């Protein structure tokens, strides 16, 4: 028996992938979503900055989104990790647990994985007391003391932003030494400098320094690098766009990648990340895919 050919296989069933699936389901297209259940923001208890969902547990947002999307009869869900993806004569083949699934189009909504600074106590506080996005988590610190853990000169961006949310200390941690112009800018924003290296993060968000002092904070921010959660984009030979903290899949205005018929959206395909941006990006990808299915040549 010939394997069925879906209109679209979506790899990644988080906010972006589900948003794309919603547009395709409403166009009555046959969609298979493959998801391994590892949302990037699974460590956070609350999501902020998304209209109508401000302060809601991101797991609840994702679960409700999935439930709504799965009401569309042409959408199917497969739990598992996509192991390989390749172009075929008729479209694409994706392998999950050794079984091939075929489609006319392919959408990568695989997300990225944060590479956290190697500081004792940081990993278990990620998304709870140590954050990466001031817009997502700054307000809830209630103008308390904020610490910025430097990873490189790029941490200047965090340090200069965060005084709008509370008194800010830049913990250099031997990552770099600000030059005269940077020092002037930090001073203008009222940022305090701490040059002693960090020994560990303790308590809620307390920094224990190498010399024995402890600095208490309401919250901490760290600029983490990131990488693709799945090697499929590289496996397909797609083009990437480098940015200072990682690389994202290169797409055009309608979210199609350098390989015709392959689309990408969400954190894997845009440098700025939030639930709201992922949903919008997925919406665009879904409509782009539908246009491709109607008018495309492959």
Set down the secondary structure blueprint.
Blueprint: E1 5-11, H1 15-26, E2 31-35, H2 58-69, E3 75-79, E4 82-87, E5 92-96, E6 99-108, E7 112-115, E8 130-131, H3 134-137, E9 146-149, H4 155-161, E10 168-171, H5 180-188, E11 192-194, E12 198-202, E13 206-209, E14 214-215, E15 219-222, E16 225-228, H6 232-235, E17 240-243, E18 246-249, E19 262-264, H7 275-295
Parallel strand pairs: 1-2, 1-6, 2-3, 6-19, 8-15, 9-10, 9-15, 10-11
Antiparallel strand pairs: 4-5, 5-6, 7-16, 12-13, 13-14, 17-18
Helix pairs in contact: 1-2, 1-7
State the total count of DSSP E strands: 19
Poorly predicted sequence stretches spanning 5 or more consecutive residues = none
**Approximate shape:** elongated
| Helix content range | 10-25%
- SSE order, as H and E? EHEHEEEEEEHEHEHEEEEEEHEEEH
Distance between the termini: 24 Å
Mean pLDDT: 95
Percentage of β-strand residues: 25-35%
- Rg over CA atoms: 21 Å
């Amino acid at each position: 028996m010939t394997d069925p050919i879906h209109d679209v296989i979506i790899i990644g069933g988080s906010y972006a992938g589900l948003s794309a699936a919603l547009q395709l389901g409403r166009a009555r297209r046959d969609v298979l979503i493959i998801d391994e259940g590892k949302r990037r923001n699974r460590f956070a208890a609350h999501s902020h900055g998304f209209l109508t969902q401000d302060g809601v547990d991101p797991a609840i947002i994702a679960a409700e989104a999935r439930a709504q999307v799965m009401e569309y009869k042409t959408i199917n869900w497969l739990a598992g990790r996509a192991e390989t993806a390749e172009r075929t004569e008729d479209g694409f083949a994706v392998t999950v647990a050794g079984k091939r699934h075929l489609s006319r189009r392919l959408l990568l909504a695989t997300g990225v994985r944060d590479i956290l600074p190697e500081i004792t106590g940081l990993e278990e506080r990620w998304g709870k007391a140590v954050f990466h996005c001031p817009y997502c988590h700054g307000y809830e610190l209630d103008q308390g003391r904020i610490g910025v853990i430097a990873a490189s000169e790029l941490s200047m961006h965090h340090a200069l932003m965060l005084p709008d949310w509370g008194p800010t200390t830049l913990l250099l941690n031997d990552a770099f030494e600000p030059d005269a112009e940077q020092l002037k800018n930090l001073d203008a924003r009222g940022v305090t400098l701490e040059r002693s290296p960090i020994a560990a993060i303790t308590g809620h968000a307390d920094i224990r320094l190498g010399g024995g002092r402890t600095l208490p904070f309401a919250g901490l921010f760290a600029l983490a690098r990131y990488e693709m959660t799945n090697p499929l984009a590289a496996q397909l030979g797609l083009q990437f766009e480098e940015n200072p903290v990682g690389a994202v899949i290169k797409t055009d205005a309608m979210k199609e990648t350098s390989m015709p018929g392959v689309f990408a959206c969400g954190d894997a395909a845009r440098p700025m990340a939030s639930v709201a941006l992922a949903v919008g990006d997925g919406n665009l990808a879904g409509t782009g895919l539908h246009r491709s299915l109607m008018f495309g040549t492959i």
